[in-house]
Design goal:
Largest sheet of chain A: 6 strands, mixed
Strand content of chain B: over 45%
Oligomer: heterotrimer
Number of helices of chain A: 27
Helix content of chain A: 40-55%
CATH superfamily of chain B: CheA-289, Domain 4
Structural class of chain A: alpha+beta
Radius of gyration of chain B: 15 Å
Shape of chain B: globular
Number of strands of chain B: 11
Chains: A alpha+beta (815), B mainly beta (156), C alpha/beta (120)
Number of strands of chain A: 23
Strand order of the largest sheet of chain A: 15-19-20-18-17-16
Shape of chain A: elongated
Radius of gyration of chain A: 40 Å
CATH topology of chain B: OB fold (Dihydrolipoamide Acetyltransferase, E2P)
CATH architecture of chain B: Beta Barrel
Structural class of chain B: mainly beta
Distance between the termini of chain A: 67 Å
Largest sheet of chain B: 6 strands, mixed
Strand content of chain A: 15-25%
Helix content of chain B: under 10%
């Protein structure tokens, strides 16, 4: 028997069939858009066909049955015999969904054959005008014949005999045939009656018979075949075939004509001249309808044989896939099931072979480079001149740098996958959602080939799902509403991805009603996130950011689509985990756009290394706006945090050592550095002792005992073996800002000798992209200050306010 | 009772080390290697007993000062101070100890069940007390020590 | 034994199954192709003893590939791999001169038998 690695095959099947199904889903959606697209139809036909074959090969009977019926439908669609409509599409999608379900079940160790599929198959049969199947007809286990006899040879053995024949029997030859025979005999050809038999367990007997026929035809002239191979194509009739052959070929080469797979018997009868003459003359004399007694017998014999064999092989409609013909590895499924094993979904990635080759080349270069270094080491011992050594070392180092840079780049590329992998599920989702919500929607996708890191992509599906659901549910209006507003009935959602610099941008936009700012404001106040007075001073983006607060939903009725405002906060935290962010722009009546910004890769980051005391910290370069070398006296001390006048703008600065909770070291010089970092349109300066330059670092996770450590995102091992801690700047600084913001808003009265006010500090922290907005805010503050503050809970002195701030800052630090 | 694996069913191999005046043992199968003290990178806001992280062949692993973990007085590191790298459930840790003595093989008959009064440690952190030439060796259950968040105090 | 075979199927899984079966029997898989164009190219460059062509393949289907291969090498030993329901296509292939055909889903012995006989 043939031994093959069954588990591996099953795993490979799972992987490949999932890919096929993903494409199938996509193509079905395309078909719905353009039901006449022949390319799409052909593609679907091919895909269903592949799914069917593969599933049958590993013994996933039910998947195979569904796919088979889908294939049948597209076979008709292809020939323009059937036209797809919405009803058919719905049935196809249900069938598709069931296949996914069966596949997932199988992956979890459940026998897919035990799951009922009749409810999805019957609609397909209906479309095909076929008889409906009965309940349970696809779930009965069919064990018989699965195991083939191990003693049987793998190859078909051809039983062969040659005999002489003195009587042709009850066969009628037409005049043309008779002439052919006469001509052949005259040329010295022999005339044979050839009987061959096809194995009982054979699919597609007709083509197999045809193969043998064709082989004989190539070795001579087939005068006649019974059954008639040229006109009869019914498989069931071709168990035994009789040919009448004129040939000059030798017996061995004739034998080889039938020596093909699954033909197990060949009997050749060399027909004597007498018999030929008898036949030709007899027919001539007695007319074509006269048959002798003996001949009737043999004719009956042939017929009876056919009938018998037909009975034996008559099979129900779906016999071809009901298990009888399934390859032996079908037992894999059983094995996997009995062991109750789950086929672990391994983290695999398909890498372009070219990319791997490039990497391999680089490894080759690296090895050459290594030998250069070995050479240098030897030279050191051999007293080679310092200058020569220096040159050689510099060269080799440059080379190493180039190679490793390229390797890093290629390696990162190898991890990249097209974002289309995530996008592909959305057309279907939007379609279903639109149906449920009775909306008319069109989803456009742009940039699905944009490549993104594999680890990022896995965590992107959920946030995107939330955003798109949100657009369908809350964004786009009902067709009626749209019509009233003078918009097209069909709403549009655009999903777009593109790369710019070292970031990936993903936009989800709609042409719906936009976000009602007033409703957001009201809700924010209602939820106690801000006071009524505060909210009027907040810039637009700040207000929109409330959407991402937990439990925030402005929609009055709750739907089962978007839920209760759960989600948007999850979206934000998810994206932050990927070191990404999300921006909103919206215009009432015209629509909204959510833009996700993500770094290209998460494992390798470009970072600015800074020194604080003896410690090295790495700050992702993406948040660094600029670095400044300043005299320590230029920083106005506010005790724990400070203020620096950056080009006439107030910048809040915090000592990094304070922020991470280390003791601040007294600087030996007056020189310090400020790293200006920005995120979410806010800026803050981090004071550090020294800058060590930029470097690409590989992020290493920290052990669980350090996991709760907010503010440290991970660690990296530097070239010299030292460890740099990677700062999670967003968490750290956000915590600080949040507290400062609150204070600044509550105790908006403080003014010190330097003329810097808390409100201007607050303003500097919230410095937006849009300068004018900030100014407006500032002006309002100034106005407010001239009058008694309406919303200050109680009058509080500046000292108290500062004390409070310091307390909170300390809390943050010590947390 | 974890990590009670032994060379044979009635023998256990231990790495002996000292903390103050006490003698302690860790089953050898938990020990990955023993290192001299090197650079330790301090991690802000880490639990008090975590001294920091070190670079172990490209991996960043946390280092625990066992004196701090057991609430003992801090002492200056000396040449004898060592970091024992242990591996527990696929996680690696460094344990800073005063000195590492030797590897001993104890027969099960030489091991008593834990006696909190003798060891000064809660029973869950001990795998037993070994007797070696009239000297007592406290066999630590390193897994539960590493997994516990509670303050562990030891009387010297 | 040791004959060189090229496998052409758009489904890598199918090729894998075929490969497992054939390598077990001591055949050498000289190359693999995932569409018709590649199949023709592989045949021309690798000159295998047998090529197994799946009928349903993208870019160029198995039959077109078969014709191209026969144009290049009249005595090429081609085995067509088909699914149930493709009778007419198989017949077309037989007329063109393929040695044998395999029907999916197949048992290991079918492919071995077909190859052994084609190599005779």
């Amino acid at each position: 028997m043939v031994n093959i690695d069954e588990r591996r095959i099953l795993e490979a099947f799972m992987e490949e069939v999932r890919e096929l199904l993903e494409t199938l889903n996509q193509k079905l959606l395309e078909l719905e858009e353009s039901p006449h697209d022949q390319d799409v139809i052909n593609e679907i036909f091919r895909l269903t066909h592949s799914v069917k074959s593969e599933a049958a090969l590993v013994g996933f009977k039910n998947i195979s049955i569904i796919a088979h019926k889908m294939e049948d439908i597209f076979e008709k669609v292809r020939r323009n015999v059937l036209l797809v409509n919405k009803g058919i599409m719905d049935s196809l999608f249900s069938a598709f969904d069931r296949i996914m379900h069966l596949l997932n079940s199988a992956q979890n160790g459940i026998d897919e054959g035990s799951i009922d599929i009749i409810d999805v198959v019957n609609p397909l049969l209906e479309i095909l005008n076929e008889k409906k199947a009965e309940a349970g007809s696809f779930t009965k286990p069919k064990e018989e014949k699965k195991q083939s006899d191990p003693n049987v040879s793998e190859s078909t053995v051809l039983a062969f005999s040659v005999k002489k024949l003195d009587s042709i029997g009850a066969v009628e030859f037409t005049d043309i045939e008779k002439n052919q025979i006469e001509e052949g005999i005259a040329k010295g050809h022999k005339f044979y009656k050839v009987d061959f038999h096809i194995e009982d367990e054979c699919d597609m007997r007709y083509p197999r018979a045809y193969l043998v026929y064709n082989n004989f035809e190539n070795s001579g002239t087939v005068i006649k075949s019974i059954p008639d191979i040229l006109n009869e194509t019914n498989d069931e009739k071709f168990n035994s075939v009789t040919l009448f052959l004129l040939t000059s070929s030798n017996v061995d080469s004739l034998k080889s004509c039938a020596d093909v797979d699954q033909v197990d018997k060949l009997d050749m009868y060399e027909i004597s001249t007498k018999a030929i003459n008898d036949k030709l003359n007899m027919d001539e004399a007695q007319g074509t309808n006269v048959v002798s007694e003996i001949d009737v017998e043999s004719a009956e014999e042939i017929e009876r044989k056919w009938a018998e064999e037909m009975m034996k092989n008559s099979s129900p409609e779906l016999a071809d896939i009901d298990g009888t013909n399934v390859i032996n590895i079908a037992d894999i499924k059983k094995e996997a099931k009995t062991a109750n094993e789950k086929i672990a979904q391994k983290q695999t990635i398909r890498v372009d072979i070219e990319r791997l080759d490039e990497l391999l080349n680089l490894v080759g270069e690296l090895i050459i480079n290594r030998s250069r270094f070995i050479q240098i080491t030897e030279n050191v011992h051999e007293n080679v001149s310092f200058q020569d050594l220096k040159t050689e070392l510099e060269d080799a180092t440059n080379e190493l740098e180039r190679i490793s840079d390229q390797m890093q780049m290629k390696m990162m590329q190898a991890r990249m996958v097209p974002i289309g992998n995530v996008f592909s599920k959305f057309p279907r989702m939007v379609r279903d959602l639109a149906n449920t919500l009775h909306k008319n929607l069109h989803l456009d996708i742009i940039g699905e080939t944009t490549e993104i890191d594999r680890t990022v992509i896995e965590h992107l599906a959920d946030p995107l799902t939330h955003l798109i659901r949100n657009s369908v549910d809350h964004g786009v209006e009902s067709p009626e509403e749209r019509e009233k507003k003078g918009k097209s009935r069909e709403g549009k959602i655009l999903l777009r991805a593109y790369q710019e610099g070292s970031n990936i941008y993903i936009e989800v936009s709609d042409d719906g009603k936009g976000i009602d700012i007033e409703a957001v404001k009201a809700k924010a106040v209602e939820n106690g996130l801000v006071t009524q007075a505060q909210i009027s001073t907040l810039p637009l983006h700040e207000i929109l950011n409330f959407i991402f607060e937990p439990g925030f939903s402005t929609k009055k009725e709750i739907t089962n689509v978007s839920g209760r405002g759960v989600g948007m906060d999850v979206v934000k935290t998810q994206l932050e985990k990927l070191r990404g962010r999300i921006d909103i722009t919206t215009k009432i009546g015209e629509g909204s756009k959510f833009t996700i910004v993500l770094p290209l890769t998460t494992t390798i980051v470009e970072a600015l290394l800074v020194n604080v005391d003896r410690n090295i910290f790495a700050i992702p370069i993406s948040v660094v706006e600029e670095t400044l070398k300043v005299n320590i006296n230029e920083i106005k001390d506010f005790d724990d945090y400070q203020i620096y006048n950056l080009r006439n703008e107030t910048l809040a600065v915090i000592n990094l050592s304070d922020l991470v909770g280390m003791k601040r070291k007294v600087n030996s010089t007056n020189e310090v550095f400020i790293v200006v970092i920005s995120f979410e349109r806010r800026r803050i300066g981090l004071v550090v002792n020294d800058l060590m330059g930029e470097q690409d670092i590989v992020i290493k996770g920290l052990d669980d005992v350090l996991k709760n450590n907010e503010g440290v995102a991970g660690a990296a091992v530097l070239g010299d073996g030292r460890i740099a801690l990677i700062l999670d700047t967003s968490t750290l600084v956000k915590a600080a800002l949040k507290e400062i913001n609150k204070l600044a808003k509550d105790y908006d009265v403080y003014k010190d000798d330097s003329g810097i006010t808390l409100s201007s500090l607050y303003d500097s922290l919230n410095k937006g992209d849009i300068k004018t907005e900030s100014k407006v805010t500032l002006a309002q503050h100034d106005d407010d200050r001239s009058k008694p503050a309406k919303n200050t809970p109680k009058n509080i002195s500046g000292d108290e306010a500062l004390k409070k701030i310091n307390e909170i800052m300390n809390d943050i630090k010590n947390n | 009772m974890s990590d009670m694996t032994a060379t044979s069913s009635n023998e256990r191999q231990l790495i002996l080390f000292t903390l103050g005046t006490g003698s302690y043992g860790i089953p050898i199968e938990n020990v990955f290697e023993i290192k001299k003290m090197g650079d330790i990178t301090m991690v802000p806001k880490a639990p008090k007993y975590i001294e920091g992280v070190i670079n172990l062949r490209g991996n960043v692993i946390p280092v625990i000062d066992l004196r701090k973990r057991f609430g003992m007085d801090k002492v200056e590191y000396t040449k004898k101070t060592k970091t024992i790298i242990v591996e527990v459930k696929k996680r690696q840790f460094g344990l800073i100890v005063d000195s590492v003595a030797e590897v001993v093989t104890l027969n099960n008959s030489q091991i008593e069940p834990s006696l909190p009064t003798v060891s000064g440690l809660k029973a869950e952190f001990i795998n037993g007390i070994g007797k070696l030439d009239e000297k007592l060796v406290i066999i630590l259950d390193i897994t539960s020590i590493l997994q516990s968040n509670e303050e562990i105090l030891i009387q010297e | 034994m040791g004959s060189r075979i090229v496998l052409a199927d758009d489904l890598s899984f199918m090729r894998m199954v075929q490969k497992e079966i054939l390598e077990e029997k001591g055949y050498e898989i000289a190359g693999e192709a995932c569409d018709g164009i590649e199949a023709v190219e592989r045949y021309m460059t690798l000159r295998p003893d047998v090529i197994i062509l799946d009928i349903t393949m993208p870019n160029m289907n198995g039959l077109d590939a078969m014709h191209k291969i026969f144009d290049f090498d009249k005595s090429a030993k081609i085995i067509i791999c088909s699914a149930l329901g493709q009778q007419q296509l198989i017949v077309e292939a037989i007329k063109a001169g393929v040695k044998d055909f395999i029907v999916k889903p197949f048992k290991p012995e079918r492919i071995i038998s077909a190859i052994e006989k084609a190599l005779k």
